[in-house]
Amino acid sequence: MDVTDVVKLTSRAWSLEILRLMHDGVPGRQAQLLAASGAGRTAFAQSLRHLVELGHLERNPGHGHPLRPEYRLTEQGAQMAALSRSIDAALGAEAQAPLLRRAWTVPVLTVSRQPKFFSEIKGLLPPITDRALSQTLQALEQTQWLLRDTRAEMRPPRPVYRAQNTGARIAEAVQQALAA
């Protein structure tokens, strides 16, 4: 597993939440997952379909009985569900879950464990656009999950970004999962 897997996973708003809920024991039935997540039907359905396409969830071949779940985690999905649980644990009591549903939050934090320039972050996340990266960096800086420090000794001065506080805990949780 590498950062591109994290990028693919987080490209749908509710993917992390669905995996976390299944990891926490919510049965893999659409109605129960939808109610537990609080997602809208369309976004939830897109995230669920996305997880199936990535191979993290599979249709339960024994589905049909009212008590059997419709979906179950694959082996790869179980690893991603554990990652999702770790991210949620790193979040703690902070009410910033909507920020985690943004596509680039977790990948940007992951590559920003060490101080990085804008161009370095962009190079590590090839599909990201300048605008998406800029907006993500601003949002993370506003929540104090990312520290922006300007290197005045350089000509011209350049900002450098580093995960901090909750952002650093999330980045560490993801890095541990990537190393496993």
UniProtKB/TrEMBL annotation:
<keyword id="KW-0804">Transcription</keyword>
<feature type="domain" description="HTH hxlR-type">
    <location>
        <begin position="89"/>
        <end position="180"/>
    </location>
</feature>
<feature type="domain" description="HTH hxlR-type">
    <location>
        <begin position="1"/>
        <end position="99"/>
    </location>
</feature>
<keyword id="KW-0805">Transcription regulation</keyword>
<dbReference type="Pfam" id="PF01638">
    <property type="entry name" value="HxlR"/>
</dbReference>
<dbReference type="InterPro" id="IPR002577">
    <property type="entry name" value="HTH_HxlR"/>
</dbReference>
<keyword id="KW-0238">DNA-binding</keyword>
<dbReference type="InterPro" id="IPR036388">
    <property type="entry name" value="WH-like_DNA-bd_sf"/>
</dbReference>
<dbReference type="GO" id="GO:0003677">
    <property type="term" value="F:DNA binding"/>
</dbReference>
<dbReference type="InterPro" id="IPR036390">
    <property type="entry name" value="WH_DNA-bd_sf"/>
</dbReference>
<protein>
    <recommendedName>
        <fullName>HTH hxlR-type domain-containing protein</fullName>
    </recommendedName>
</protein>
